[in-house]
Amino acid sequence: MFAIALCLMASVSIHAQEPAQMQTLIGQSLSKLQQPTPEAFLNCIAELKRIDAMFPDSIQPKYQMALQSLNFSVMNPHAEQTENLLADAEQTVSKMEQMKSADPSDVCTLSGFLYMVRIVQNPAQNGQRYYLNVMQNFEKALKLNPNNELAKQLQQKFFEGMKQQMQK
Amino acid sequence: MLLAALSAKSQTTVTGLVTNGREPLAGANVFIIGTIDGCLTDSLGRFSFETSKQGELTLRVTFIGFDDYTLTTNQPRDLLIVMHERATSIDEVVVTASTYSFGKSDNFKTMDALDVVMTGNSCGDVVAALQALPGTQKVGENGKLYVRGGESDECQTFINGMHVLIPYSTNVEGQTQRGRFSPFLFKGINFSLGGYGGEYGQALSSVLPMETTDVATGDKLGVSASLVDWNFGGTKACQNSSLSFNADYTSMGLYNALFPDRCDWTRPYRKLSGEAQYKAGLSSVSVLKSYVGYDLTSVGQQTDGRCLSFKEHNVYANATVKTSIGRGYSLFSGIANSSVFNDVDDAQVLGDHYYNFRNEVHLKAELRKVFSSALKMSAGVEDYIRNSKTRYEAYQYHVDYNLLAVHLDAQWRIVPRLFLNLSDRAEHLSYANEWTLMPRATLSYVPNKWFQLSAMLGRYSQTAEDEYIARSGKHLPQSTADHAILSLQYNTAKTLLRIEPYYKRYHRLPLLADGIYSANGHGTSQGFDVFFESRSLVKNLTTTVSYSFNDSKRRYLDYTSLRTPDYASRHNLRLTAKYAVGKFIFGLAESYASSRRCPVGTTPYYNSLDANLTWLVSPKVIVYTSLNNISGRTNIFRYNADGTPVTATRDRFFYIGIFVSLKNNKAYDISNF
Lengths: 168, 673
Known about the structure:
The complex is a heterodimer of chains A (168) and B (673). Chain A has 168 residues and is mainly alpha-helical. Chain A folds into two domains: 19-80; 103-168. Chain A contains eight helices and no strands. Chain A has helices at 2-8, 20-31, 38-54, 60-75, 82-98, 104-121, 123-144, 149-167. The two termini of chain A are 16 Å apart. Mean pLDDT of chain A is 84; it is low at 1-16. Chain B is mainly beta and 673 residues long. Chain B folds into two domains: 2-82, Carboxypeptidase-like, regulatory domain (Immunoglobulin-like), CATH 2.60.40.1120; 99-661, Maltoporin, Chain A, CATH 2.40.170.20. Helices cover 4% and strands 58% of the residues of chain B. The chains are: A mainly alpha (168), B mainly beta (673). The A-B interface holds A 25, 29, 42-43, 46-47, 49-51, 53-54, 81, 84-85, 87-88, 90, 104, 118, 124-125, 128-133, 135-137, 139-140, 143, 162, 166, 168 and B 27, 29, 31, 33-40, 60, 62, 64-65, 104, 107-108, 112, 114-115, 216-218, 239, 284, 535, 539-540, 580, 582-583, 616, 618-619, 665-669.
């Protein structure tokens, strides 16, 4: 699971229609994750929230906020900040669902990732409960956009994780 | 250097402390609006950062679970910021009083359908699984749901909000009548034991609303087989829609041959079922769900010198559309049709024939609006169009009537942590030309996510059975029941405790006196339910304790004086344990019910110890097996008028089934839907 987060850090897609200033700020903020310490993640997420407050109608800060919160959570599933970050990510994904400019494939990917983190937190209890949600969300994300690299990577990692669990 | 010095001079330092009024808040996000200048508070709630902004600054502080704090100041040093906890939005709070929810219809739930199905002796039956919950009574001779001292037909089933007229398949006495629907059809099952809102009616005791799964995202194909049933089904997923089918054949023939029982079968229990679902996202804000199911059930036994034979055709179909129409409004509309044909040969005497046909069309529309984080409302109208025909030798009747209902619901956050649900439902019964008004209220105190305290009051109504309506000359008005329920719940990640005392008073129950049915019956039912679930005793072990005390008395049908109904037992206790280790999940369930009083005597207590085992053989194969009533005790459910005991036709029941996914990349998904 740790590897998932690392591979995701490179997945910074910049939407051309978003303001250049915002893209620069997001880029600067994400660049701080080159040293992916928990503190760096928390500061980055806080900065992304500030950028979101500057551009409340934009999708990109919300997407990155949710994604980095989930990245932090999957690497630190039992950290004291994790529950708050997951609650925040869930709210952000709900907000994105209501926004017409949100890419439905991205929304499904984040939803699937959210359930995946829940499984990482407690595989014995949540695995059985949420694995279908994970897979259905990734499947839907790829059906809506077959080129969604993040969904592909997460789906791949999830299958690998399940396979490992079953071999135990 | 000069430039650098000038730049340094133009920075403003912002410092301060963030608390919740009692203690510092660590990790709050403090920043200047319109910039990314800011920081997170440290472990002591302190913050300090520099900004290039000069003069008047607008500062914002955010922290999950607290209202955002905004401050405009010229003196940005040593600020003391007190954050206020965010009041729970009306949309976030789910009042759980008197309701047990399974599945994922409301965020993250503590249990799902798979959990309950693998607990105890359910053998994959929703109704049997729900009988592990408090408030339900063990009535072994038919296995139906009896809730808090009410008759089984006082509990009504709804699929996607639409009523199901007959949710059980027919069977002979002493054999469990299974629910018609697989739990894996549903993403959410909400079992309300009383005190429900205005949306639901025609149920004196409880409602079982179930929500089918969403549009499938992938193709599926699966088969399952056991000693008693064989199933084949699949799903074809398209871009924004999915079509599913399922065919099932159940027969007790093989089982009866392998494990003979006390019954002299002329035709073993057989059921042939076919189901189909079509679900589509009509647009980004509209969803269509439709379902059609057909069952043909037959069974026959030799009894009292005659060949008692049942045959039933049961067709149920529904279609619903949910759509968001902007400005916070959403619209729900639906139509459902239930048709049930029953033929019974040698029903009472050799050579007679009983025929019954029942039909119901249910139409429903509801408008919902979220006005603010403190208020949401819904208003709806629905119509039940019912007719039935019965012929038995020279006797016959034909009943048809219409029941129109309107309801208005408001959910209001009075003050933070205190919520009031108010609803009113009015129903007009065509043949009696009578309106029944049913106000309902629930007051809930929700101080945090672990604790809930609720008080519920409400009136509920239900028409009498068609036969009683016919035999009263269409003079029976609706029966009503007043519920008063108190609910206390404590729920953490590993523990759930719920205690619910209740009191119900029944009015206008059908009463048979001097061969005439009137509405002079009445009764009461009172008691309390306790449910405790723990996941903390041993890793991977889930245990539950479910206890119900019920004191029920009623004067109705042929009870000419107040007495305890013969289906009611005062004490019901269930203990369950589920333990997962590797690829195996073990389940144990102990059920106890105290004696039941019949006119000719009192039964001994009921006791059954059941065990089950689920083996996750491979990601595409699951084996499930269970043995009910391990000790083989002969439980007597009640006595007939001649004093003969009514028991199950066999003391133990062994089940083994295998579920195989043929075309499905989802491991352990035994649902073909």
